[in-house]
Structure prediction request, 266 residues.
Amino acid sequence: MSFLQVRGLAKRYGATAVFEQVDFDLEKGEFVCIIGHSGCGKTTILNILAGLDEASEGTVIMDGREVAGPSLERGVVFQGHALMPWLSVLSNIAFAVKSRWPDKPRAEVRAHCMKYIEMVGLAGAEHKKPSQLSGGMKQRVGIARAFAIQPKMLLLDEPFGALDALTRGTIQDELVRICQATRQTVFMITHDVDEAILLADRILLMSNGPGARIAEVVANPVPRPRDRQAIHHDPHYYTVRNHLVDFLVNRSRRYQRGELALVVNS
Prediction:
């Protein structure tokens, strides 16, 4: 049995189905990205996995238990940092840690938080408030907070979408390093094809909405470890990149119109 099983997932508003018959699995320790045009329901799927929204149909089973409501077993990082502005970096993370382990002594909470603050490269900024941080630093806090509760699965909703290219690359590298060290299971939404190739083990491609579905599941052929400076020299890189871009430009609409059959693996 896979660590995460999604079966027959659908979301409807009245007679309109945003997506339907969405089926996929995640294995423990796997990094999966989902790509599709706006309106196909990617964020709604992530919110259902997080327990923040309810599906109209279908089930989500994680580690043998059905997902029903929010849980600290699933950490979420949104595109907006979602930090409490009146708390310091340390206190923002500690708030989550104390929610996860309410009986943990204060000294242990601080040491635990500092471990993840250092892990995302924010040592020395632990007493700063969010207003004193750059956008990239705020996202690092959000990532540290999510990792600090040691969730069984990490859900990322375009967490780097609003960042400049240099900052985005730096935090992507931090995420790769942390995931390799912790073997974290990750489900991530992205619009960036290169980001998906750098990070993902598999890439889910969604057809256009309404009535969107998982049209293709692409196994990433680029071997790990991956280096952003050298990845484009890999012989598989342009093959998989061209396949993903062609899907977004051409095939996603043809799947929507039923001109192409859904592909389980590619």
In short: The chain is about 35% helix and 20% strand.
